[in-house]
Structure formats: structure tokens, C-alpha cells
Amino acid sequence: MTHITKAGAYRQNQLRVLAVICLAVMGGLMSCGKNPVDDKPQRDTTRPTVVATVPLDHDSIVPANTVISATFSEAMDPATMTSGTLVLNPPVSGTASYAGLTLTFTPSSPLGTDTAYQATITTAAHDTAGNTIATPYVWHFTTFRDTIPPTVTSTLPLPNDSATVNTEISITFSEKMDLNTLNSGTILFSPPIAGSFNFVTDRQVVITPNQPLDTFIVYTATVTTAVTDSAGNHLASPYVWQFHTIRDMTPPVPVLVQPVDQAVCPDSLHLQAAAADNDRVSHVDFYADGLPIAGSSDSTAPYEFTWRPVGLELGSLHQIYAVAYDEAGNSASTDTVTVSYLWRLLVEDNNEAIPRNLKRIYARSTNSLLQFRVETWNGWGNYKDSATGIDVAIFLDVDQDSTTGDKTTGVGETERIGDIGADYQLIVGRDGDVVRRWNGSAWATVGNVENLVVSNNSNFFEVSVPLSSLGNPSEIDLTVANFLLSTFQWDWAPNQGHVTLVVDHSYSASPPAGSGIMQPVSTLTTAFD
Questions:
Q1: Does the model's pTM come out above 0.70?
Q2: Strand pairing class (263-265; 337-341)
Q3: In 10 A of CB 344, how many CB atoms?
Q4: What letters, b where the CB count within 10 A reaches 16 and e where it falls short, cover 140-152?
Q5: Do residue 101 and residue 182 come from a single domain?
Q6: Same domain, 481 and 361
């Protein structure tokens, strides 16, 4: 049997009245068996409610830094979700935010400790349809005082552990600390360690020593009871641990960047090194011929120095290297490179019983010029004079093929050049200051030398030729001949065979003023006393 309430019977009567009206108005055009369709949306008249809170009602162990929130049963009007809607008593200032179904209130400062609070959601809270909560929603909670002292949870170095002299000391605590209490007066070391205090988080401090620690020393670290957490609780008792230092035995890894091996050293030479270390590089020193170069120590990368040698012999060879040091005193050297001062010595000839015989032959190359310096054991008079002058030929085999080019020279072609097939010759002296090329049957002059430094009553000259006029070779086989017109004598350098010159274009700097060293100019110059 179906039970019908008074409200249900009333509703049924309403439907009967509507049916009669429908029949009367529509005149039978609408079937009374169909209900009219109501397209109007139903208005939301349901009031929102608070379904959850933080803290819970009557919670008595609420931390002072708690954020208060209330969650509603339905979406609320954000305009009503303000700090005036969630009110605390005793009053607390703060900011409100709304997300999802939750209104959150963040106090501007921690709540009072040991304090009973009443929280209220006022009837200013509306849902999106404008319905307010039926009555203010009230709940209560009580904060507690943090009386738990902080503790040290970890350290680096670990207790009784070893550490390098460049170690940093780290201390981590169990809770948020008052960072103002973490300093050199509350964290002590024996022997003393001076350094900076840096805070990684509100629970961790890192001490960076101002200088490397002593080696093979036991350090005692003490965190005193003067340190406190954010609630003001002191460490219950001093925290003490020890660690010992060991010497960093790993040397740095240095590399000599400049100069390159076999470079020609002009009047100054740029030295540069790179260095890496498992900790920190202290400095890099540069050495020449086994001795430190004065003033070359550099403690900042890139490690570099400009070397200006004094009193070195032309063409002399010098060994350059660098030594890198780390802060633990470890050191390591780079590979050694060999450089020639101003010129690269190609030939050093014996002092033979021939007037004005050859002594040394030097060479160097720029991007565009091949340059030679020729020295004799004895000086000459007028360098163009057939009796007292010179007549030097530098024979060049630029294709390094001894089967091509000229192999003899001299009157009647009786003197052998050596084991090369000469393609070019540079002539300085009575026979001219010219460049000649072997045309297959004879020597033909192709032009003057690029520049010439020579003087009477001297024992050296310098000469150059454009590399482009020689076909820009990368290597050249060569020999040098000095012909004495007065006695019809020949001197060869080297005495047998030849030398090979690598054209490396390494010389680029201008020599110092007054050095007498040739500079790359494009005009023929001669000087006479």
C-alpha cells in the first residue's frame, strides 16, 4: 500500500487543476496524456556548507606556523573568499586565497604559542548562485609551544673522517634554525678555522675556510648550546666531532698552449698555459732552459706571460715549459717545447782555412716571406768588390726532387751543388742581389731579392724572397755556397749533402728597433759604410 503524505496529495491536486486548464484552453488540440515541457532551468537555492577545516575542530597541538583553511560543499563566489570571510579570534592579520573548493588564510606572522583560537566562516561566504551559508561556521583550536631542542643530524666531514686541506665544513640540523645564531662565535674549531658562513637551507650551514687547512692535523669542531631553532630552543648540549686532514696528493694537469714546438721566438714571445685540478689551481710558473722566468708566475686563468729575452744568441735554441701548482702544493710540468731565438739555426759550419768562409746559416718564415741570415767567420770589405767582397748563393730545391733542377755550378759547371736538384738560387754579392730560376738548361734571373740587409766591413747579411715566387712550398731542401773570386775557392754549408727547412710561417713580430734584424719591406735596400 502506497502512503501519500499531505504534501504529496496537495501536489496531486495541483496537477489535476493544470490538466483541466490545459483541456479548456487548448480545445483538445493538446493531448491531456502529455505533460507540458518546462525549459526554464531550476534555480539553485541550496545553501553551501563547510565540510572540512584545517586545523580540525578542537585540535590542541597546532603548530604556530599553521595555515588555516576551510573547504566548502560546492563552488563559491571568489569575490566573497577574503580575509574578512575567515576570521580568527584573537585577531590575526594575513592574506586569503581561494582555489578549488578551499578558502586558505595565511597569517602574516606565526600564531601565538599556547593560545586558544576561534575561527569563523562568516555569512559573507556566497556560492556562485548567491546562496550564503545558513549560519556562521565556527571551530576552535589551540596552538602549542615548540619546546623541543634542535639536534645536529649530519656533518661533513663525517666524524673521525679524513678531509683534504681545501674541504668545506657542512652542518645540518633537525629543524628550522635561527640563522643569526649560526656564526663563528657559536660554531668553534680547534685549531681555529677562519672562514665564511653560508646557508644552503634554513637547516644547513656551510663554512668555507679562508685558506687551506693544515695537513695531517686533527680538528675538533664544536656546535655550542648558543645556537637555537626558529622557536628559540637551544641545542640541549654541545655537539662535538673530529676530523683529520690529509694532503691532497693529486697534482694538477697543465698544458702548454703557446708557443708551439719549433717556433721562432721574436723579440718577445707570448707564453700561455691551461691547468686543471681536482680541487683548485694555485698558480702557474713558466720556465726557460730549466730556470723560472722572472715575474712569470700567474694565479689567474688563462695563465700567461710575455717573455722578452735579453742577451740570447741569434738562432739559439731554448726549452720552454710551464709548471702548475695546486693549493695543496702539488705540482706538474707541461711538455717541453723548443723555440729558436729570432732565427732558426740551419747550419753551423767549421772554421776552415778559407777567407770569409761560411759560419752559420739561419732561416725563418712569415706568411709571405722566406728569410735567411748568412754569417761568415771573417768579415769582408766592399761586399761588391771582387777581391774583398762576397759572392754567396743559396740553392733551393723546392720540389725536393734531386732528379730535377741544376746539380752543378761554377765556371765550366765543374762544382757539384750537392745531393739536391736546385730549382732556385738567391745571389748576394758581386754577381748581383737577385733571384734566379733554373729553366732546364741555365739560370735565368726572375727579379731582385725582396729585401736585403748588408753592409761593408761586416760578416753577415740578411735576405728574403717572396714565398709566392717559389710556389709557396711547405718544405725546402737547401745548401749554401760562398765563392771567393780572388782565390777561386768554394765553401759549402753544409759541407756534404743538404738541410731541409720546414716553412711554418711562425715568425710574425717586428724585431726591436736598432737590432739590425731584417724587417719585411717590399723594396731592395743596401747599406754601405
A1: no
A2: parallel
A3: 25
A4: ebebeebeebbeb
A5: no
A6: yes
Residues 335 and 353 in one domain: no
Nearest to 176 by CA among 155, 158, 153: 153
Structural domain tally of the chain? 4
Q: Is residue 375 within 8 Å of 390, Cβ to Cβ? A: no
Answer whether residue 526 is part of any domain: no
Tell the burial category of 322 from Cβ atoms under 10 Å away from its Cβ (0-12, 13-18, 19+): buried
Close Cβ partners of 469 (under 8 Å, ≥ 6 residues apart): 435, 446, 447
Residue 318: which CATH number?
2.60.40.10
Residue 446 CB-half CA count within 13 A: 17
Residue range of the domain that includes 226: 152-246
Q: Are residues 351 and 489 in the same domain?
A: yes
Query: Is 157 among the domain residues?
Result: yes
| pLDDT tens profile 477-527 | 999 999 887 777 889 999 888 999 999 888 875 443 333 333 333 333 332
3-state SS class at 108: coil
Is the four-CA dihedral 34, 35, 39, 41 of positive or negative sign? negative
| Together in a domain, 362 and 482 | yes
Assigned domain for 37 exists: no
Residue 466 grid coordinates: 717572396
Q: What is the pLDDT of residues 382-410, one digit of tens each?
A: 989 888 888 999 999 999 999 999 988 76
Of 501, 495, 502, the residue nearest 480 (C-alpha): 495
| Rounded-to-integer distance, Cα 423 and Cα 438, Å | 5
- Say if 240 falls within a structural domain: yes
Please answer whether residues 170 and 206 qualify as being in contact, where contact means their C-beta atoms are separated by less than 8 angstroms: yes
- The upper half-sphere exposure of residue 143, i.e. CA atoms within 13 Å in the direction of its Cβ, equals 21
